[in-house]
TrEMBL record:
Residues 2-159 form the Obg domain. Residues 462-478 have a biased composition (Basic and acidic residues). It comes from the Bacteria. An essential GTPase which binds GTP, GDP and possibly (p)ppGpp with moderate affinity, with high nucleotide exchange rates and a fairly low GTP hydrolysis rate. Plays a role in control of the cell cycle, stress response, ribosome biogenesis and in those bacteria that undergo differentiation, in morphogenesis control. Belongs to the TRAFAC class OBG-HflX-like GTPase superfamily. OBG GTPase family. PANTHER family: DEVELOPMENTALLY REGULATED GTP-BINDING PROTEIN-RELATED (PTHR11702), MITOCHONDRIAL RIBOSOME-ASSOCIATED GTPASE 2 (PTHR11702:SF31). This is GTPase Obg. Its cofactor is Mg(2+). The gene is obgE. The keyword Glycoprotein does not apply. Its EC number is 3.6.5.-. It comes from Ornithinimicrobium faecis. Residues 160-338 form the OBG-type G domain. GTP binds at residues 166-173, 191-195, 212-215, 290-293, 319-321.
Amino acid sequence: MASFVDRVILHLSAGNGGHGVASVHREKFKPLGGPDGGNGGRGGNIIFRVDPQITTLLEYHHGPHRTAPNGRPGEGGERNGAQGADLVLAVPDGTVLCTRDGEVLADMVGAGTEYVAAQGGRGGLGNKALASQRRKAPGFALKGVPGETREVVLELKVLADVALIGFPSAGKSSLVSVLSAARPKIADYPFTTLVPNLGVVTAGGERFTVADVPGLIPGASEGKGLGLRFLRHVERCHVLVHVIDCATLEPGRDPLSDLDAIEHELAEYVPDASLGGMPLAERVRMVVLNKADVPEARELAEMVKPDLEARGLEVHIISAVAHTGLKELTFALARAVAQARAEHIVIEPARTIVRPKAIDDSQFQIRRSETDEGVVFQVIGERPTRWVRQTDFANDEAVGYLAERLNRLGVEEELLKAGAVTGSTVLIGPEDDAVVFDWQPTISAGAELLGQRGTDIRLEDRHRPTRGEKRESFHGKMDAAAAARAELDKDRRAGVWTDPDDA
């Protein structure tokens, strides 16, 4: 079973918000105690946090589904529900969070770095919080909002100062084992190393880490062998060391051709610029000619060394088995790392910028579309969608409260401008999870006779009748009443009676 995993896909579900409760205070001799329903608790967030003690994503490979606790519902007696605990997921230093499309969400570098990957849902308000001067005893409460669900790709990119790269069986793992206390698996067959091995090296006052990158072959930048899987571990390394096997017996291979092949793959691989990575071909590079304990290999190494130095590369002839040339190599690596650290521009994590909404921002939009069933109007916006999810449609008072909120936001006015009429199909929310209404505008229920909501045209008439107008109106009513009594008296004298069955 694999003990090292550097890429996983996680399915995250943040906690749902708890429902608010509609409750009325009950106490002896106090029949009208008023509303006392509490609010629901917020759902738990899902947070990623860097833990230096973790070096692999193996735990998430076996458990890719993670769910945060839900918030508790409110209770009577003005008792609010408990908030759902945040789910903290520990990741190794150097983990990159991105979407399936490759969009980088966060670069987790540095112990304690955190990123909220999924927000918990809001808790619903109880009827105590919904009470107002106009609505003194609400008979409804708001539901909790579902937590955010999303897929996140975790990619581990090893943090090391020096990367040992080269063909399989070039002696990279052996070199790590003699330079540091690391004990990687070493064998005489290709692709023995299937995972990066890290070791800590001390040279004088300099301390740095060395990573043994699994063997590369021609076409690695296109996905051949283990190339694409492990080339990303080179992205964060400042110094690249070509480990070349001078004792290989494979036909068609020699130190110069091996170097050219690996250099080509490095040039073809493009690091993620959003993480501050510069092209691999522009980094400090060094060549190590290994297995000099073999006489033929030693002669070949001394032969090609001048050609490699002519290219501007620093060359070291060593033997990891015989421990020759290691001291000079160690201090050369320390100097290169110190120089690279001095020249390296530290990329600070992007700060969260809060951009408040404009005062005149409606925070929603109306989208009109033609379908087989007719014209459909879709209301898209975070606030209308949240309000709909919080509404208990089995409660008429709650539905009326939703209509008031949408009207205050200006949804009805915009629907009228878009051409909606009574009975039009209106969707609120995303297409895959929208609530469908047969729209009945509030101004079509006779309210237009009273003007816009919040106004009354009967109050706009400021004329005060004079005493003569009042007297004339009074005499007119009295004359009408006298005429009605005379008509009834005439019918009674004539013997005209109305049959109750004919009425």
